[in-house]
Specification:
The complex is a heterotrimer of chains A (244), B (497) and C (269). With 244 residues, chain A is an alpha/beta fold. Chain A contains 14 helices and 8 strands. Helix content of chain A is 52%, strand content 12%. The relative contact order of chain A is 0.15. Chain B has 23 helices and 12 strands. Chain B starts with 16 loop residues before the first helix and ends in a 7-residue tail after the last helix. The relative contact order of chain B is 0.13. Classes of the chains: A alpha/beta (244), B alpha/beta (497), C alpha/beta (269). At the A-B interface, helix 1, helix 2, helix 3, helix 4 and helix 9 of A face helix 1, helix 15, helix 18, helix 19 and helix 20 of B. Strand 9 of chain B pairs antiparallel with strand 9 of chain C, so a sheet runs across the interface.
Chain lengths: 244, 497, 269
Amino acid sequence: MRIALIATCLGDAMFPQVPRATTELLERLGHQVVFPAGQTCCGQMHINTGYVREGLGVVRHHVEVMEQGGYDVAVVPSGSCTGCIRHQHGMVARRAGDDGLAERAEAVAGRTYELSELLVDVLGVTDVGAHYPHRVTYHPTCHSLRMIRVGDRPLQLLRAVDGIDLVELPGAEGCCGFGGTFALKNPATSAAMLDDKIAAVVSTGASACTAGDASCLMHIGGGLSRQDKEIRTVHLAEILASTR
Amino acid sequence: MSTFLGMPSPLRGEQSFPKASVKELANGQLRRNLQKATSTIRAKRAAVVAEVPDWEELRDAGAAIKADVMARLPELLEQFEAAVTARGGVVHWASDAAEANAIVTELVRATGSDEVIKVKSMATQEIGLNEHLEAEGIAPIETDLAELIVQLGHDKPSHILVPAIHRNRTEILDIFRREMPDVPADLTDEPRRLAMAARAHLRRKFLSVPVAVSGANFGIAETGTLTVVESEGNGRMCLTLPQTLITVMGIEKLLPSYADLEVFLQLLPRSSTGERMNPYTSLWTGVTPGDGPQEFHVVLLDNGRTNALADQVGRAALHCIRCSACLNVCPVYERTGGHAYGSVYPGPIGAVLTPQLTGMQGHDDPSASLPYASTLCGACYDVCPVKIDIPALLVELRARAVETDAAERRLPTGWAAAMKAAAWVMANDRRFAVAEKASRVGRVVARDGSFHRLPPPLNAWTGSRDLPAPPAQSFREWWAEREAGREGEREGGGDTG
Amino acid sequence: MKPIMDQARVRAAMLARIREARDQGAAGAVEVPRDYHRTGSLTPAEVVDLLIDRLVDYKADVLTAQPDSLSATVLQALSPSTSVVVADGLPAGLTEALAAAGLQVTVDGDEHALTAVQLDRIDAVVTTAALAIADNGVIVLDAGPGQGRRIISLVPDLHVVVLRRSQVLQTVPEAVARLVHDGGETRPTTWIAGPSATSDIELNRVEGVHGPRTLRVVIVDDEGDQAQGDQGEQQADQRQLGHAGDAGDLAAEHGTGRGPGVEGDAGPG
């Protein structure tokens, strides 16, 4: 298949290893990855902070770029970006009175998948031939869990990784406290939630914490680093891309 | 419309949520109590909901019934009024808290009593009825154990369902010893002993006070029937023993027909206390000669509900049946407790209902900070028995707050200016690429690839977290380099473009 | 009753505001999907067993009886009360049997309506019920025959309910439909699911705050039915369930009928 990669603004600018790993993984599975060069951002930061009107231009740009085609499906290594594209782009357009854009956005969203959705549902694969001999715990991010409902697809993929020692995270379904700009507007509460998530991660004895959202991992990793924990954060794509 | 500058109101605190929450987060006792309480009720709720094979169908019906009520609210209210009146009740209309308080005071005065017994009612807390009655020389006596604890402790409720959850047993013993005139000398802090002390204290009042004030969980438009759902029996006491009963009910609490109770009497108990059914549910219509109060009044309360009703998206907040399931799953509420929200309606539903009831009057209005008191994790939406999409409502109210603020200001706030700039950058890939390059200039001050301390506003991040420095090469730069390399290899061959 | 404020004006303004708001936020007509279970799927015997399970779970005592052993069973349930209040309409002969057994029986009614203070001095109340719901253990009183005014089943500390097997329905929708069918929507109605309780102190559940602290349910076969689950005929089918062992234990555990394990209670009034 020709799979268009949406790197996400955070992945592009701060965590290039995530879209890079996604590329390597999909190419290893025999697919062609294309990178629509005009892409920037899904707009969720604006939409979720109350700057919905300002976010309209970002949404429109995303739709215009992805409408240019040249791919069969699009993949996003981020539950929150996928959720925004799928559940919020139409709302933003309608709210601005642009029903035409809303329909176009929904058409684009209809061919857009989060990474674990793409692998399990579209490509029909759970064993991607990965090798990652470490003790790992998985944090199901809130958008993955409740907005797009990936269910246990990421766990199916992780369980099939050769050499992995997967341990369950206590209280996994509890929010890590990132919440986008929440982390800046309500730093005390965000830190309190982060403390509990870190304690849970530490209690597993894992050397790595993984998730499907680089944003949450940035928050959890930032806390682990500040507390001098020897636990690294690694995106689901990076684990799945790893080989011997 | 309530003003907020310096005027306390049950719906508006003095501080914004970010400020108020700092103090609450530091209260270790509160956090422990809350964590234990919410996790216990969460587990109970999950267990009893799992027993119900048609739970999702019940939620669908509940959501639709409530949407139907909002769509037909004026007609249903008139139908309700006619039905109550036909059965000997009197219906009063109160557009705001002041009117409602005046009506209730007048009705109590007419009985000649200077005391009134109360069943827990969120609506009466919302309008500050107790404070108003006290100022008018009438003593309101809360009869719900938790409300009694809060009242005797001169305190404020911190949870819709278990208002005294911020108090442990030793604190409650102290409160009873200080404030209960007839407290047994040998009272201990064992919960059963405390409950029995409350029972004895209140029984005297139940048997003698001639007028009661209640709220209502539901009002049936078709028949004029009111419903109170409770656990302790104080509701039955207040609704049955006095000569006069006054019920204060928000206009949104209607259900169209009696049959609709078959949905809501399943949804409510399992969602709120995590029981198959609460111990007592009372239903009554107007006056029944010889049985219960012979004078019945219902006060219909607006107090800002029409603000929400006028909003196509926002009106979903009026579907709330006050079960508090959302409070019990909210990771923010679990840590900050109810007082941080500054409103008798805290937690997820409070964050979308309170700002609509009060209006959001600019950037400094504490109400305007409530829609931001959430990570949008969505746990509340999953448990709401009537499927209120609280995350979507929060996003909409955030947009409202920003747009209202922008319309009233000449100069944008720091946030607004930054967001506008970011949107301009992100709507164009060339600008985006330039901004990426520019952000790398910060790498020079990073230590070990991380920032440990950044100036405002990013100090909000680095207060408790490190921030990785931007990488030397962005993804698109890596991709372009890789493509150029491959292009070079393909030179002379076919183009796979 | 003199008018408060200018209610006509307030009412008109409020309704106008509500109409305006409703129109402004209009979403059109709403269809209500009713795909939830409207009826149950258990047999009548299973339905009663389910109810018993729920009653025991929330610490009500359960006794069973046949029509000819009903009086004896109710007396057992009332033990060791010395006074009881009833309403007109109890099963034939029951009121007389209670009096004959030496209990001080007061019949509450229009001509003789007890005050709250008088009721507070009576140990127990016996009523029938409108119906019961097995799924959630609810017993519904709707002021019908044998049930009386609400106050009589509220103030005394022991409430004995006489329930016929045929009155037990499985689901809430069936119960609501039955109440509507029987014209009960505007009657004062109480749904009872256990003795009263509070969890307001550290979420520690305390049973018996206000309202009767002991609830005992006597489930009696309908007239003409064979005893359910019994072989042959027995004179008195007095199977006793609940958390007590046998009749003697039942009385001893509940002491004065004011609820288990209560010490230092100041007593009523």
